[in-house]
Write a structure and sequence with these properties.
Mean pLDDT of chain A: 85
CATH class of chain B: Mainly Alpha
Structural class of chain B: mainly alpha
Shape of chain A: globular
Order of helices and strands of chain B: HHHHHHHHHHHHH
Strand content of chain A: under 5%
Strand content of chain B: under 5%
Distance between the termini of chain A: 31 Å
Number of strands of chain B: 0
CATH architecture of one domain in chain A: Orthogonal Bundle
CATH superfamily of chain B: MetI-like
Oligomer: heterotrimer
Radius of gyration of chain B: 23 Å
Structural class of chain A: mainly alpha
Distance between the termini of chain B: 35 Å
Number of strands of chain A: 0
Number of helices of chain B: 13
Radius of gyration of chain A: 22 Å
Low-confidence stretches of chain A: 254-259
CATH class of one domain in chain A: Mainly Alpha
CATH superfamily of one domain in chain A: MetI-like
CATH topology of one domain in chain A: MetI-like fold
Low-confidence stretches of chain B: none
Order of helices and strands of chain A: HHHHHHHHHHHH
Number of helices of chain A: 12
Chain lengths: 259, 270, 345
């Protein structure tokens, strides 16, 4: 009976959580020329608008390859960092640990503004690789958290066995350790991608005229509430859902380590 | 493995963090002192206008944290005490909003809360009200939007804490005749305090530095520190002042974390 | 599979972990083709010794030689030693065949040759046809056999086994023990086996080295170890025993500290302090007689184990085969033991 009450309350809360995600769907298919709810009719005009606007497509593509590059760079730097943190014994390890997670703690606005100042000097504003570097800084903590968790559960006897069977340290890493860490690698890479794809604040400052998708959406929202945004939102929601499914299927989640 | 080993792989990442994290942040904070005086800090912390902003930010953060706690605890509790099948479903519906772009969610709230928005239209249509409620471009709108974004961050630690609770304790209490309300009050709540605490700290700190939601849902009328900093940099071009504001924000953020860390350490001591 | 098994020579190996001395100057010689078991309780240093031989620990002093070659500082990957661990350490992401092929791939053996030798190795452990399975699809015993195949497929000079059967149930353990024995004999491979189970040691070994607190107490054949243990520890650790101490009062006779006199067949010098060991199954009739009350009688199927509180104050454990008269608790019995059956050390 009190359980029933709990379930009722939670259902309401879930509705609250899902409401925004659900509401964009009908709006994106509205036949009205402006924001209207409930939509008077069905139309794919906003999707057409999106697909036909070179600026939107350009922004989407940019977000995609910036996201991909961020994932690659974040893994390339974050995986060795995770190894060092999980297995290394050196002076200052605690400090490095704090530093690796610091981008999560320091308010992003401060980092964004700081990078804006630095990049303006270095003439890196608007350059996609500058954005990749900035996004990698933000993605690094996710990669580290996932990989350290994965390494913690790794059975080192397997590496010893490989060594005993004649494998050098490198070969052990490539043939035994990394293949077995694949689920964590997949999760970490996908999280890094998503964090970059959705990222607005840094992009706001660093993307310049070459916009990422979130930046274009932000500008658009500020200028007018055009239901094209709804269409783009739906696409984004679907993309994230696909990535979540991929993580669930091939990756290893963060559920074990509820923050 | 020998002692003092294994630091080498960390080097590339450390180079990145030093060059593109520490350096820009420190450089940025340094601007506030370029006049050689603490004038900008005096302005940031002395002038009524800006003190209001800090107070606003603090107020919103407190409210957001409180509401998140109120809504997040039941959710975390339910997911942690239900069957694995339902729990997975519960998780999905918490993680999906979490990983959906903040921008998308904030936009959706604009659609929902506007004068002609979904909510108001519905309430007018069923005759509950005659004039649309002002739910957007004000404190309420920002509150709703931020709670929506930050709720999952409260749910996850609470879920963890409830999971770690020994079910034997509950069974014992039931056996001794405690009602479910009593059990909640006397057993669950005190023993899941660490989770409550962790979630609250995360949500509070994130609220302090929040930008997107207040910028969009506040419509310029709800000034939080992050929004102010952005304005000072992009519109007013007042870097030293923005830097001073950033420094204060950072000190507040780190301060809250430090406080949280030390009190959990104190708890650990028997 | 031709064997090129080597002899192993461990000389004065010392290993410390902070304050703890895990190995206190251990020396051991193992001949080519021999199966030696290192037997000892947990903490005796046996696993550390194995790790030193395998190369996962470097000793603070001493040397390890294989066929005369000093390998003390050599990394494990180059030592050409086969190893089987207790928790199998099979690579979960590789099939059985790929697992067994792994050491050959590390040595850059040609593919067709790899296939042939993997097939051969799986045949030796009676797992032909299991090549495409994954480790998680196999039972504990099968996994252990794959581990064995993987350890020998590359013709190692030496085979090390670290309590490989601890996780298996009793029947399976016994089967695996015999299988290892059979395989080892067939390949003539020098083998070092680690265990804390003295029965296992007795079943498998040519020789046993009993270890305690970082030192070797005794190295001898299985019969020697059991019949003529060198000291209290070995006597107590291997098999059940009745151990007492006393002084030799005249040739052929010992007066125990408890007061009782025993006739022995040992030429110990008069006046020397000795320990005497009487194995429970050696009691029957004999010149030395003990009478007492049965404190405990345990029926073990094939034998009966009695705890006797003798009139002269000694407490004895006596085993007699079932099938005869079976005394119960509270009964008074008399047992005897021949002087030749009493071991003196």
């Amino acid at each position: 009976m009190s359980r029933g009450l709990l379930i009722a309350v939670c259902t309401a809360i879930y509705i609250f959580l899902m409401l925004p995600l659900v509401v964009v769907f009908p709006i994106s298919l509205s036949s009205a020329p402006y924001m209207q709810f409930p939509p008077p009719g069905f139309s794919t005009q906003w999707y057409d608008r999106y697909l036909e606007d070179p600026q939107w497509i350009d922004a989407t593509l940019r977000s995609l390859y910036v996201g991909a590059a961020t994932a690659v760079l974040a893994l390339a730097l974050g995986v060795p960092l995770a190894f060092a943190l999980a297995r290394g014994r050196f002076v200052g390890r605690g400090l490095v640990d704090r530093l690796a997670l610091a981008p999560l703690i320091v308010p992003t606005i401060i980092l964004s503004v700081g990078l804006y100042g630095l990049f303006a000097k270095l003439k890196l504003i608007g350059e996609w690789y500058g954005l990749v570097v900035a996004h990698t800084v933000l993605a690094l903590p996710f990669v580290v958290l996932v990989m350290v968790a994965g390494l913690r559960d790794f059975d080192r006897a397997l590496e010893q066995a490989a060594e005993g069977l004649g494998a050098s340290r490198w070969r052990t890493l490539l043939r035994v350790t990394l293949p077995l860490l694949r689920p964590s690698l997949v999760s970490a890479g996908l999280l890094a991608f998503i964090s970059s794809f959705d990222e607005l604040v840094v992009a706001l400052f660093l993307a310049g005229p070459n916009m990422t998708l979130p930046k274009k959406m932000f500008d658009n929202i500020l200028m007018e509430i055009d239901p094209t945004i709804a269409a783009v939102s739906v696409i984004q929601i679907l993309l994230v859902s696909i990535v979540l499914v991929l993580i669930g299927r091939f990756g290893r989640g963060l559920q074990g380590s509820a923050r | 493995m020998s002692s003092r080993s294994g630091w080498l792989p960390a080097t590339p990442a450390l180079v990145l963090l030093f060059a593109f994290f520490l350096l820009p942040v420190v450089r940025m904070l340094g601007f506030s002192l370029e006049s050689g005086t603490l004038d900008w800090y005096a302005k940031a912390l002395g002038e009524q206008l800006y003190l209001r902003v800090f107070w606003n930010t603090f107020e919103i953060a407190v409210f957001v944290t409180a509401v998140c706690l109120l809504l997040g605890y039941p959710l975390g509790f339910l997911i942690a005490t239900t069957t694995p099948g339902w729990a997975t479903l519960g998780f999905i519906f918490v993680l999906l909003p979490l990983w959906t772009s903040v921008l998308v969610r904030t936009y959706a709230w604009m659609v929902l809360l506007g004068r002609n928005g979904v909510f108001n239209r519905w309430l007018i249509d069923i005759g509950l009200i005659s004039d649309p409620l002002p739910l957007l471009h004000n404190f309420t709108g920002v509150l709703i939007g931020m709670v929506h974004v930050l709720l999952p961050y409260m749910v996850l630690p609470i879920y963890g804490a409830v999971r770690r609770l020994d079910p034997a304790l509950v069974a014992a209490a039931e056996g001794l005749g405690a009602s479910s309300w009593r059990i909640f009050w006397r057993i669950y709540l005190p023993l899941t305090l660490p989770g409550i605490f962790a979630g609250s700290v995360i949500v509070f700190v994130l609220s302090l530095g929040f930008f997107i939601t207040p910028a969009l849902l506040g419509g310029g009328k709800v000034m939080m520190v992050a929004v102010l900093i952005e304005q000072e940099v992009r519109q007013t071009l007042n870097w030293p002042f923005a830097s001073a504001l950033s420094a204060v924000l950072l000190v507040l953020t780190l301060g809250v974390y430090a406080l949280a860390q030390s009190s959990t350490r104190q708890e650990a001591r028997p | 599979m031709a064997s090129r098994s080597a002899d192993l020579n461990v000389e004065g190996v010392v290993k410390r972990f902070g304050e703890v001395v895990a190995l206190d100057g251990v020396s051991l010689d193992i001949a080519s083709g021999e199966l030696l078991t290192i037997l000892g309780p947990s903490g005796s240093g046996k696993t550390t010794l194995l790790k030193v031989v395998a190369g996962f620990e470097t000793p603070d002093a001493g040397s390890v030689r294989v066929d005369g070659l000093d390998i003390t500082a050599m990394p494990p990957a180059r030592r050409d030693i086969g190893m089987v661990f207790q928790n199998y350490a099979l690579f979960p992401h590789l099939t059985v065949a790929r697992n067994v092929a792994f050491p050959l791939e590390m040595r850059n053996v040609a593919k067709p040759e790899i296939e042939r030798r993997v097939g051969e190795a799986l045949g030796l452990v009676e797992l032909e046809g299991y090549g495409q399975r994954l480790p998680r699809q196999l039972s504990g015993g099968q996994q252990q056999r794959v581990a064995l195949a993987r350890a020998i497929v590359f013709n190692p000079r030496l085979l090390l086994l670290d309590e490989p059967f601890g996780a298996l149930d009793r029947k399976l353990r016994e089967t695996m023990q015999l299988e290892v024995r059979r395989l080892q004999r067939r390949l003539g491979l020098t083998t070092v086996f680690i265990t804390h189970d003295q029965e296992e040691a007795l079943v498998l070994s040519d020789r046993i080295a009993v270890m305690n607190k970082g030192s070797i107490e005794q190295v001898a054949s299985t019969t020697e170890i059991y019949e003529r243990p060198a000291n209290d520890f070995v006597a107590d650790f291997v098999g059940e025993s009745n151990i007492f101490h006393g002084t030799v009062t005249e040739v052929g006779s010992v007066t125990l500290d408890a007061g009782r006199r025993l006739l022995i067949a040992h030429p110990a010098r008069v006046g020397s302090r000795v320990g005497v060991l009487m194995r429970p199954e050696r009691f029957g009739r004999g010149a030395n007689s003990f009478t007492g009350e049965v404190k405990e009688a345990v029926y073990l199927g094939s034998s009966l184990k009695l705890r006797l509180a003798c009139d002269d104050g000694l407490e004895l454990i006596v085993r007699q085969p079932a099938g005869g008269p079976m005394p119960a608790t509270g009964n008074r019995v008399t047992v005897g033991i021949e002087p030749e059956s009493i071991h003196v050390f």
